[in-house]
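During the no-cost extension, the postdoctoral fellow (Dr. R.K.) reprocessed legacy sequence entries with the updated structure-token encoder. One reprocessed record is reproduced below for audit purposes.
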Amino acid sequence: MRVLQLTNGNAACVRLTLALERAEGIVVIGAVLDELLQAASGHSPDAVIIDFDMECDVAQRLQCLAALREVRTDLPVLACGSRNSAGEIAASFGTLIDDFVFRPFDTEEVVVRISNLERNVTPSSGTVLHNGDLEFDLATRAVVDGGKVIDLTVRERGVLQVLLCHKGETIPQSVLAARLSTIDEEISPQSIRTYIHSLRRKLTTTGAAIRTIRGTGYMLAPTAHNKVAHSR
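Re-encoded structure tokens follow.
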């Protein structure tokens, strides 16, 4: 898999480059922000990684990503960054970037994420997300625990889907809000608290624990004997 990594040569970018180059089956193509479109056209990458902690003009970064979307709608983009970048990542999620991972992270996790994105930017219709006995069928949108259907609202399902896709990770309120927002309606980070409260109540008997990481966001704690998301 050919991965185009946007870099400015700082220590964090270099460490990620070296780690990716050690991963089996990964070919890293380095480029600076100004070269993004040229590199995407000339090197035919399978995915793009952009570090939102990289020092650059924010407006320029967003413009370059928007331009990339226009010429390569099929090219998945993974963002990485620290919690300080959560706001910008949230604003870009779903439009300019397809997935994200926050520091600290394992290189193996990054490889898995970009591999999944390269296979399909959006999950296939047969994908089922698991956490213990809790199942979320992305095709039917049904949430089931041990064969029992759990009645959730559209927004509660949206929150649960993000938490299941990133279980074990802390997801900022702003990212959850961006994921649920639409062109016609913007969801505020404060509203996420209401959905989390309701979701916790409905998942009480499932053993799924949504933890509040004070001052940061929420995390779905992995349940023992997790099954890996699979395709039917």
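The chain has a mean pLDDT of 81. DSSP finds eight helices and 13 strands in the chain. The remaining legacy entries will be reprocessed before the final report is submitted.
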